[in-house]
Amino acid sequence: MRKGRFILLAVGMIGVILIVWLISMAFNKKPAVLSSSASGNSATVSTNLTGEVPWDYQVQQVKVGDLIDGDMVLLPGNERISNDQNFATGDTIWVLDYMQATMKADSQGKNDVTLSQWKPIKSYKTKEDADKDIAELKAEIKTDVKLIGVYKTELDGSFRYFAVAELPTGQKVKQPISEERYTNFKSKKEVEVVLEEVHDYTDYDQSMAKFRGWAE
Asked: What is the Cα–Cα distance from 189 to 186, expressed in whole angstroms?
């Protein structure tokens, strides 16, 4: 009897440990900085936007220079990248360049941004292939954001109008606006904006949302 109770107790403890482990794994799953809904009109984000984040991508045409130990040198910038597709010196190819940002937030939530140099990360035989990748890494979405407020300034009888909004990432952006938009925004708590969602090439779940304009 005691042996049977001991076995049941051991099985029960293992079951409890397994359940706790599964719950822990679910809560420790790394969230995306910006996860848009199917309609693309709303978003949830991580507000801890510090450290290194993806910033931008570009596609450019280059020429292959020297070949060094399985790598190739790209001209005219002399960047070095793996020669995965066995290109030859003198070939004209396309490359995907990546730029990242190092962000530090101060006590007011304002971010100090330091941008890296462009770095080539992948080569292509055609521009069409490169454009397919960049279309998946950069996307525009519309979403509602908190409108902190609007204000105007005066200089020599001329007025300038501004709006301050808080992005889903927690960043605060100040943008000049027209007098018409100033009047329209005065009574609003939220406004619809266009954001550019930039995903990390090596970790697609990590992304950066950048203001790209007003949607209304």
From this structure: 9
Helix residue spans in the chain (DSSP H): 2-27, 127-137, 179-185
Are 59 and 94 a contacting pair, CB within 8 Å?
Answer: yes
Label residue 31 by pLDDT band (50, 70, 90): very low
Whole-Å CA distances, 132 to 43, 127, 137, 156, 174: 24, 9, 9, 51, 33
Residue 112's pLDDT is 79
Amino acid at 170: G
Note the pLDDT of residue 9. 52
Tokens 């292959």 sit on residue: 64
3-state secondary structure of 167: coil
The backbone region for 70, taken as left when phi is positive above 0, alpha when psi lies in -120 to 50, beta otherwise, is: left
Pick the closest to residue 92 from 77, 79, 113, 75 (CA basis): 75
User: What pLDDT band is residue 7 in, cutting at 50, 70 and 90?
Assistant: low
Identity of residue 161: Y
What are residue 113's phi and psi, to 5 degrees? -110, 130
DSSP-assigned beta bridge partners for residue 152: 161
